[in-house]
Amino acid sequence: MIWDNELRAELEALDRVGLTRRLATLESATGPRAMLDGRDVLMFGSNNYLGLAGDPRVREAAIAATQELGVGSGGSRLLSGNLTANRDLEADIAAFKGCPAAVIFASGYAANVGSISALVGRGDLVVSDALNHASIIDGCRLSRAETRVYLHADVSSAAEALSTDRGSFRRALIVTDGVFSVDGDIAPLADLCELAHAHSAALYVDDAHGVGVLGDGGRGTANHAGIEDDVSLIQMGTLSKAFGSVGGYVAASDAVVETLRQRARALTFSHGLPAAALSAAQRSLQILRDKPSLVTTLRDRSSRLREGLRERGLRVNHGETPIVPVVVGDADAATRLAAECLARALYAPAIRPPTVPDGTSRIRLSVIATHTDDDIDRAVDIVATSAREAGIA
User: Fold this and answer.
1) CB under 8 Å to 205, separation ≥6 — which residues?
2) Cβ neighbours of 323 (radius 10 Å)
3) What is the spatial distance between Cα 174 and Cα 201, in angstroms, rounded to a whole number?
4) Cβ distance 140 to 175 under 8 Å?
5) DSSP 233
6) Are the beta carbons of 187 and 320 closer than 8 angstroms?
7) Residues with catalytic function
8) Are the beta carbons of 178 and 207 closer than 8 angstroms?
9) Chain centroid to CA 108: how far?
10) Where in the chain is the domain with CATH 3.40.640.10?
11) Quick check: 34 pLDDT over 90?
12) Alpha-carbon distance 239 to 278, whole Å?
């Protein structure tokens, strides 16, 4: 190919500064332990927060749905791929999130890109957190609305971005992650909600890492903040993390959801999810409703890991979520630490630029509710030992 030499040079430049990304191959179900690249490891690199991806009851639901309805849905949801399972799961999600309606997308990425670009456009204003997920950033770009980025979790910065010539715009939308995926910190949703009301704006919350983790029975970040009934609120989430399946959704008012069904290109032009994925997610949601103590267990395990690492002198944030980053600084140091951990049979991936700012590279550990106390304590020992071997204070 005529670009090969140029592309190879760019790839070599990435490798020289420790930014090459490599795909580890999972050879088993994901759980507290997993087979990765041919070796058995303690798995601390998964977003399977409640351990439901490999739960026998969830597997059985997926198998039964496949046997009844086949492997694929046959088309986009607006053609022939709108299975009954879509309708049933949307109703369950709406009830769980405390919203009038919900709509399911093929992925969380598609939900963000499709929804933001369907709800705002030219002549509108989006005010977006500086550390929002890439799918939010891409949704803002595709919307062609004017986008102003505010300092991370800084309500004063958001207010300044929103108040400047607000009257020049038709609609205004504040967009934020509920739980930020690499730091595990929580957005100041109550204050952002108050700000939205002051400027006749809507508040769009990406709750991908909050549902199943925070709030009453895992209902998410908005519930945790006490704003789940607010009329300004639009809640996005995924089926691929705490629910252990695949897909994304938006839960909101009837008018918002119907607008997405009519206008969201990521919904119109994407194949409908297969029955296996929908039924698996619905079974996971039922398990969570029946056993909300899973959320408490997850929080307890997360606290144990966070405190254990801190006691060993590692730089760990003070948080409430199962995302526990160990920040080490430069990309090469993070890569070395991840490699040392893997050599001791612990998988915790290195997170480096452009995912995080320069100088804040880290390994990211994420806890699963089905980790045992022994798993957590073993992880603390491995990370502390690996940090010493990698020359990291």
Assistant:
1) 176, 177, 178, 187, 189, 221, 222, 233, 234, 235, 236
2) 24
3) 7
4) yes
5) E
6) no
7) 181, 209, 241
8) yes
9) 8
10) 56-290
11) yes
12) 9
Distance CA 277, CA 385 (A): 40
User: What is residue 355's predicted lDDT score, i.e. its pLDDT?
Assistant: 84
For residue 51, the one-letter residue type is: G
What CA–CA distance (Å, rounded) separates 92 from 90? 5
The helix-helix angle for 108-119 and 254-263 (nearest 10°) equals 100
Nearest-angstrom CA–CA distance, 269 and 285: 27
Report pTM. Answer: 0.95
CA 360, CA 370: separation in Å to the nearest integer? 29
**Is the pLDDT score of 87 beyond 90?**
yes
Give φ, ψ of 277 to 5 degrees: -65, -45
Q: What CATH number labels 22-49+292-389? A: 3.90.1150.10
Sign of the four-CA dihedral 28, 33, 36, 38 = negative
pLDDT band, very low/low/confident/very high, at 393 (cuts 50, 70, 90): low
**Statement: 56-290 belongs to CATH 1.10.10.10:** no
